[in-house]
Amino acid sequence: MNYIDVFNGDADGICSLIQLRNANPKNSELVTGIKRDIQLLKRVNAGPDNFISVLDISFEKNSVDVQRLLDQGATIVYYDHHRIGTPVRHSGLKTFIDDQSSTVCTGLLVDKQLDGGFRAWALVAAFGDNLNSVAMELGTTSGFKYESLILLKKLGIYINYNSYGDSLSDLFYHPKVLYQHLQQYVSPFDFIHENTLVYTTLEEGYMQDMAAAESSPYLYQSSESAIVSFNNEKWARRVSGVYINDLANQYPERAHATITENVDGTYKISIRSPLDKERSAVELAGKFETGGGRKSAAGINALPSESMNQFIDAFKAHFS
Length: 320
Ligand SMILES: [Mn+2]
Fold this sequence. Notes:
alpha/beta
């Protein structure tokens, strides 16, 4: 049997596979990418002698390739918490998917199957997916001290942060390489204490990028909404997603947008609706040609510069 491990490049994807491969060590081919790169099964070719493990990428977004790989005779096990879409039944496919619960992530689904055998890694996954209270509670009942949980939380944030960016060249570590560094440790605490080069690189990168984000200018700011403008630089592409979530947590009553210029002169816009109000971000984004997303988090991929004022006015009006 030849093993192929396909996983999202964020903390949840990476820490899910770490648990799986600590429990069941295999020499496998690794397929991963930046966080937004979720159609990973497209890149996989396999036959009857392949066993494919898929972690933390939407089944719905990969279902055509699931079907193709099953038709080619491969065996697939699928763990995920994003949208499942239409389920597929096939003797070669086993799924552990929960797209209903907001207190679950892929790392916790794997943890359940492994009876908590690598619980600390599951907690890193949960913290990375911003499931802070879930992770704190599970960590406390599992006997971890508060200070230890804070350490796992930091690691989750840093691994997750490493997966953002427009391309692999924006990242500090290719998620495959980061996985290979982390995988060598049964416990994340040992990784933190022993591989200080990788840990410090991520920590310092995160701190510097966040500081740069914090000193970026506001295009607009009121008690109801705020727009931050970023230069199109590596650090901004890495940190904008983490930073806008941070702003949303800090000012839950406010709507937020970040604007970053694309190489072609258009603008990429991220929008977060206020955490404590029922106002849809995707409804606003959908008014623009390349807009889309979810109720709480949406974006516009390529806003023409001449539409910028129109967007700012629409944003203010939508969230006032
Ligand atoms: Mn996840």
